[in-house]
Amino acid sequence: MNQQTMQNLTLFDLLARSWRRPSAIADLRFSADDSAIAFASLDGTVAIAAVADQEPPESRIRVSHDLGQTTIRPREKPLVPLIATPRFADGDVPLATYAHSGFLVGAASGEVLHLTVGGEVAEPLAKIDGPIVAIDHSTRAGAIAVSNGHDVFLSCGEGDAMRLKRHATSSTDALAFSPGGRRLACSLGEGLSIWTVEGNAALIHNVPLSARPVSIRWSSDGTWLACALETGGFALVSLADGRADIVAGFPSPVRTVCWSHPANALFASGAFRIAGWSMVALPIGGEASGALETGRAGLVLVEAVAAHPEKKLIAAGYANGRITVAQIGARDELLVRPLGSTVTALAWSGDGRHLAIATVDGTAAIVTFPAQIFK
């Protein structure tokens, strides 16, 4: 490799392992033990990659003795191929992390399937009527929640799933257990229902919203929910009283929201910069004092955000494929990839060493950062 080519390499070229799937990737999940990651594609298949890097960046870093300059050489070994599954549905399938090192897949057959990190499909854990469109699992509660788009079912082990007794007939295609597994939030048409699932499940709040929730994220202490809406921004819902505040004014629909526990902050996609707010002054009732100026504003929309689990950092993926990691509350940012296909999903591993990336052109990637890069 000549010197000119070396100079043109990006951080993504040097640090990422990247594969191409036949169709766009809609979602991704790390296993609980960070040993594997699953990528769900729009063709109804799932692909699994091992997180461990055969050529970790530390093994490729060199420091010159005379100038003290640090360089990293490109990878030399071929990548281990992804493990691809059979097709579970005609479109993308819902994914959830399961047990210590596996995943749950919601199939069009109505079966809740346990997918191992080796790509093997175990016996169904539960079955409902109709195709599964949403799924979540709580390790602490040992419970699985699934929806066929109309009804929500709970399963606390192998066997039949119990249907929540709801009077409403609105669609339900987003589910999320609270961090402790004691509460379950479900989209409900243009609204949100929150249930206690300890013992006999019971409704706590029915929360009307301005549009359909497309994703639900609990704060780490379980007191707030952030819901990306199909149109009109995102909603902040208080568990204490069920009050909802809509944060609007985004130039594009908000696809993802996330909470940063280290920074005590909330972030959303859908703007021309990384949009974030301190939890000390949440953007409710028109309050804007908690806004965090993070990264640099530009002319391209942010499509996905993911907060680092241990540091005050936020990763952002853009419509033009740009990927950055920014210091929360500052303009400093690390350019990981300058251009590419539109980013559809981002996620950090539990230890914050690996950033998983999914894109519209079917790219599935894992960026493994050297330990010293975020010091």
Describe, in plain words, how this protein is organized in 3D.
4% of the residues lie in helices and 42% in strands. The protein has helices at residues 3-8, 11-15, 57-60; strands spanning 16-20, 25-30, 36-41, 46-50, 61-63, 70-72, 83-84, 95-98, 102-106, 111-115, 126-127, 134-138, 143-147, 152-155, 162-163, 175-177, 183-187, 191-196, 202-208, 213-218, 224-229, 234-238, 244-247, 257-260, 265-268, 275-278, 302-307, 313-318, 323-327, 333-337, 343-348, 354-359, 363-368. The strands form nine sheets. A four-stranded antiparallel sheet has the order 1-33-32-31. A four-stranded antiparallel sheet has the order 2-3-4-7, with no helix packed on it. The longest helix is centred in the N-terminal third of the chain and has 6 residues, at 3-8. The two termini are 30 Å apart. Mean pLDDT is 92; it is low at 1-5.
Give the beta-strand count. 33
Report the average pLDDT across residues: 92
| Total count of helical runs of at least 4 residues | 3
Low-pLDDT sequence parts: 1-5
Which class best fits the helix and strand makeup? mainly beta
Compute the gyration radius: what is it? 21 Å
Question: What are its keywords?
Answer:
single chain; mainly beta; 4% helix
Write the layout of secondary structure elements.
Elements: H1 3-8, H2 11-15, E1 16-20, E2 25-30, E3 36-41, E4 46-50, H3 57-60, E5 61-63, E6 70-72, E7 83-84, E8 95-98, E9 102-106, E10 111-115, E11 126-127, E12 134-138, E13 143-147, E14 152-155, E15 162-163, E16 175-177, E17 183-187, E18 191-196, E19 202-208, E20 213-218, E21 224-229, E22 234-238, E23 244-247, E24 257-260, E25 265-268, E26 275-278, E27 302-307, E28 313-318, E29 323-327, E30 333-337, E31 343-348, E32 354-359, E33 363-368
Antiparallel strand pairs: 1-33, 2-3, 3-4, 4-7, 5-6, 8-9, 9-10, 10-11, 12-13, 13-14, 14-15, 16-17, 17-18, 18-19, 20-21, 21-22, 22-23, 24-25, 25-26, 27-28, 28-29, 29-30, 31-32, 32-33
